[in-house]
Amino acid sequence: STVFISGANGYIAQHIVKTFLSRGHRVVGSVRSAAKGQHLKKLFQSDFEYAVVPDIQSSGAFSSVFSRHPNISVVIHSAAPSYHQGPKLQESIIDPMVNGTNALLEAAWDHEPVRKFVLTSSYGTMGMSRMLQPKSAPNETITEESWTYTNKESATTKGPMVATMCGKVFSEQAAWEFLKRDMPQFELASINPAFVFGPQAFDSEVKLVMNGSVEMLHQFLKGKSSDRMPTLVPGSFYDVRDVAEAHYFAATSNKADSQRLLLANGQFSSQQIANILRDNFPQLRDVVPEGNPQKIPKVKCPYDDSHTRALFQHEPIGLEQSVVDTVAQIIAAKQA
Ligand code: NDP
Asked: InterPro entries, from UniProt (predicted)?
């Protein structure tokens, strides 16, 4: 079958494309420029085609993709602005998320052969209420039924992180509302990963500054061991290769229909990342602060993903492996 994916050049999307190609599917991916498309064609060197969609928000943005590729039966919406410093949070983050999701849903609805629509959402739509409501239910266990508390006004007045989370909530909600209201011919599933770690799909994609979640690890390599430990928001993670596997599962199994898949594989802290790096890469001992290796904060796991694990029976990659693979690739790229 032919799979369409938006934002095909993104960090996670490249892994999704790779997974579908390796299993014999044709993939059409949208990018914002022909140069980005040509770059991907060189990387994938197989049954991959690109479509240039310069503005995902314009109505009819995706219609020519479907008329040119009538066999598309699976649609994956992965394009979204990532954490973005600067003014105009509504225009630069929230609008492209919500309008882009609606534009692609409408195009897929107009195209009868589409059977599945998989939305790359975020754990942030489930478990981040405390960012906007610091005193909200501190002991609430997050599940696939949870929704992050949002508020239209604070969405754009509390900085880019909150805007990003709110934009993900509004866009995922728009998709579920579309399903209920318009009763399209396709099934919908959402993939809700926590911070995504893991290597780039291709070694040549290692950059000086990488996408938000990988940059969280990358920053540990940019200082000196005498620096202060980088502060990370204590969070949960999931490996990018497993995130791609979850998209494949959602696209190919009816078990994921109408489901939100909560993808998280435990909590991490700065100290744990530092320990993993110093233990596995002796050459990083001058670079990564030691901190107090024994002092790993004990955090109660804030979520319960048993529903997702029962559906998507997949053993995810652990924190150490994920961090080691990410950083080994960066070190190798710098030496090359
Ligand atoms: P990347 O920044 O690597 O990729 C983002 C993709 O979206 C790129 O193709 C980018 O295109 C495209 N894009 C960004 N803004 C726009 C816009 N305004 N219009 C059209 N296309 C746009 O991010 P990730 O791979 O990390 O993220 C992919 C998806 O996963 C997103 O939906 C994100 O919200 C979600 N996600 C990511 C997590 C993470 O930790 N990384 C965690 C949870 C969810 P271009 O290259 O042209 O800018």
From this structure: Epimerase_deHydtase, NAD(P)-bd_dom_sf, NAD(P)_dehydrat-like
